[in-house]
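Practice set, problem 2.
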Amino acid sequence: MKRQVNRCASAALAVLLGWAGLTGCSSDSPASAPASSAASAVKSGASSAASAASSAAASAAASAQAAASSALENVKGGLDAKADVTLGPVTTGSDGRTDVPVKVTNHDSKPRRYTVLVNFKNPSGTVIDVSALNVPEVAAGATTDATARSNRTLTGTVTPEVLSALRY
């Protein structure tokens, strides 16, 4: 997506600079006027491209959140188990995706399965991705480790949080 935005911004810049050159040849106004106008248009185009990239990221996060929420809808008779889940430090995998160690402790007297949703947030607190994690059966009183993984490459500082955890 970033590559596509960069290509669009580059194409817009080329068109605007070409336009500035043509109008500079046929105008009675100083040559700096078209250049200034072109610079203004490029700045506006870059702002639009950044806005489009931000919108695409928000769309990707919304899509991931919808998919993760549908994972919870498949759980029948689940009980809130956020207290059973702890998250470790964020790392970046060799494929560039964000990984978070997840520790699940079954405090129940019976073996249980878990479905955990982990939000990935940027420094402003905006959710930029969501991961749904299905943890297979955990023995009564036992603890197991799993890994929540982002659905795409995330940049900058990322903070994970347990959005939801169901025990069933």
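Problem 2, part (b): a different protein.
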Amino acid sequence: MHHQRPLPTAQTSLWQNYTEVNDYLQLVTDKTLKQQAGIRLVDFKVLQILVESPEAQTSQMVRMGHLSQMLKLSPSRLTYQINSLAKSGWVEKVSVDSDRRGAGVSITDAGREIFETARSIHKATLHDLVCGNLSKSEVEFLGAIYSRIFDSIDTHYRERSYN
């Protein structure tokens, strides 16, 4: 005898839709960046922080610990990532003057060049796949919802000291 599964709740359906969209969007964005700019999405995210973060703009580098937090990567995973980017000539490791043990990362001219190329591709891809299909008010509404979800996750994460 065949049993029908109960229909998913609205929350289960929301979660399934979110994860499918997020995974698919990252996959398509990664493939597009690789094909059109020769850079992976994870590499793009690192370079983006090295260009756009307030720390990078004031000191021309970002501390490894801060980069790890921003990217939600373990220190060992980040070290692997930075080594890979350094081999490509896109970043360089630097010492932090105020902290002998501290390590930082700065973007090279070649890294800035690849980032600028990738940034326009990334922006166009997100517009084509996400924002171009939504009204301005839907984009604003979705942005507000994601901010609230992020804040909730961040509070939960920090309160439980997972890091």
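Answer key, part (b): The beta strands are 62-63, 91-96, 99-107. The CA atoms of residues 91 and 107 lie 4 Å apart.
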